[in-house]
Design goal:
Fumarylacetoacetate hydrolase, domain 2, binds magnesium ion, globular, lyase, 13 strands, alpha+beta, eight-stranded mixed sheet
């Protein structure tokens, strides 16, 4: 690691304040180009520590930048991982206050819920499918705290991978008999399809994103516990939303989920 604890704490405060007050900041590698991967995850962890100290609860995990569409959109080439806390959760059909966010975008996700713990290294899609209780459709709302949604990989990891809200569909579907690669995904904004894809866009198979998360945590001596909800990453590019927009996601065999921005 190249940053000291004071700097990590200061950068965590900067990014969390930007989130809570809905304002942009300059990407942190401008001032700290020496920041390394461990520093980036240490800042992310410090933001979580601050939230837990104020009573927030972790309700899930996420993989991000797992599709070619997203990697191309953001100009990066490696998946990233983050956490989701209770106040990020929005009910299916519920409203999201646009004014609480900076420049939100929505992305379609295949969401896993585990029934067994998953631990890397060596986790693969077979282990993930064996440990999956069910899958659901989910809309993730991302909101980079960085100016103009522009960042590098280390800055975005520190910013908890732009996480801000998520909406889960109410239909829980077991994976047995489903080919998650060929599931069609259609996201509509105000009744018009704005993003269309299939599960294979996520690392060839969405379960590969969950395996990558287990391997990432395994390298840190951690695991994905049983009963964990995990967003496997946007199937398509993310789409910007404005107040008044209504977003619906339909995933073949998994049902639908929607939200509205006010
Ligand atoms: O969930 C995601 O794919 C977000 C990863 C971070 C990059 C971004 O803000 O698009
Ligand atoms: Mg996502």
């Amino acid at each position: 690691m190249n940053l000291n604890q004071n700097t990590i704490a200061g950068l965590a405060e900067l990014l969390e304040t930007a989130e809570l007050q809905a304002h942009e900041v300059v990407k942190i590698t401008e001032a700290y180009p020496e920041m390394d991967w461990d520093d980036a995850y240490a800042i992310q962890n410090e933001i979580l520590r601050r939230k837990l100290a104020r009573g927030a609860k972790v309700v899930g995990l996420k993989a991000g930048l797992t599709s070619h569409g997203k990697m191309k959109q953001m100009g990066v080439s490696t998946p990233v991982f983050g956490w989701l806390v209770d106040y990020f959760s929005v009910a299916d059909g519920g409203e999201i206050k646009h004014s609480e966010l900076i420049h939100p975008k929505v992305e379609p996700e295949i969401v896993f819920v585990t029934k067994k713990a998953l631990k890397g290294p060596g986790c693969h899609i077979g282990a993930v499918l064996a440990a999956t209780d069910f899958v659901m459709p989910g809309i993730e709302i991302i909101d980079s705290r960085y100016k103009d949604f522009k960042f590098d990989l280390k800055s975005v990891i520190a910013d908890n991978c732009s996480s801000t809200r998520f909406v889960l569909g109410g239909q829980a579907t077991p994976v047995a008999g489903l080919d998650l690669r060929t599931l069609g995904v259609v996201m509509e904004k105000n009744g018009e399809p704005v993003a269309i894809g299939a599960g294979a866009a996520v690392l060839g198979h969405p379960a590969a994103a969950i395996a990558a998360l287990a391997n990432h945590l395994g390298a840190r001596g951690e695991e994905i516990p049983a009963g964990t909800m995990i967003l496997s990453g946007g199937v398509t590019e993310a789409v910007a939303v404005e107040p008044g927009d209504h977003v619906t996601l339909r995933i073949q065999s998994l049902g639908s989920v929607s939200t509205r921005f006010i």
